[in-house]
């Protein structure tokens, strides 16, 4: 059982840990300054705790979140929500982001500055061809990712993190950025959204289920115990690397002009710290580490997204979907890292609260009978508040933003939490309640 959990945990860790997991922790460390610990705990809560819990809950149901959402909310909502989720963690945001980070952090510094977009284009073409080759054989993904690539890139990250903390750990952190000075925990919590891990957990739960089926179990009890062990393996791996990378970013000396510039602080810290620690061999080390880290996630996302669409919309085959999503990811990757991050955050601010609420409903429904109408109302309330908050912020509609900020827990960047709790309370008392067994 421990061996099965270890192998599956390594596979999932390799699929989860990608571009955002590398660049956002050191960026948070630098920007949080003196407010490092509340910021990183917020980040770990949303980036690790909620993600792992989402993964475990999805793995407990052999049919995954499709059945859970269809039964508790409605089949059409399950389809709509999951399509948006898979497209977000797949070809529109996460897949192209992994390729762009691999290029900008690892490869671009070794190229001449006049190469520009041509270098990104050539790199992403080769990168996506390799990922597509692995994705065409999803049954072999345990061997190619879990047993081989994950241990290699995890060891490289640990080496960089350990040496970096040893060299810069005694430095005094810089002053906190405005958002962190005012609300360190809430800002860190929202930054955890950028990892996409809670959304990816919905998708990867199906991959984990298929992997565990290949390993075989003697009983349901052994299967459930293995799932919880898998969750522990993934949670420990993430927490150690997140805190270590963030601490490195918190203590690494970043010039004021870089802190004030519109560049990705995580990319800068990873690149500069690696060069400072390893000298002339730095960029090759960084290129290999980042490419492996991002590549495992890219292959895993192509597989999980193509498998979902092939099952949900069987008019086209898995191979057709894998080809389509690889090509879309290739095209969007060439827009550049900052562009991808800028467009992804508003979508995440809507999808994340809905995802967390769904997980909450599934958990509560295993212990208490809930009304289906009440659960539907809970999702409506959370979706409305999340959507309104994004519209108010993006369109600069002050009265909407002010209304959202008056809601309880808004100071923690959780304005949707009270509507979720109100909806859950109604689901406990409204008629026609049902309970999961």
Automatic annotation (TrEMBL):
This is Branched-chain amino acid transport system carrier protein. It holds the Pfam family Branch_AA_trans. GO terms for cellular component: plasma membrane. Component of the transport system for branched-chain amino acids. The chain crosses the membrane at residues 39-61, 73-95, 115-136, 148-169, 227-249, 284-309, 321-341, 347-365, 377-400, 412-430. It comes from Rodentibacter heidelbergensis. One of its GO terms (molecular function) is L-isoleucine transmembrane transporter activity. Its main location: membrane. It is a multi-pass membrane protein. Belongs to the branched chain amino acid transporter family. GO terms for biological process: isoleucine transport; L-leucine transport. Keywords: Amino-acid transport, Cell membrane, Membrane, Transmembrane, Transmembrane helix, Transport. It is found in: Cell inner membrane; Cell membrane. InterPro entries: Brnchd-chn_aa_trnsp_Livcs.
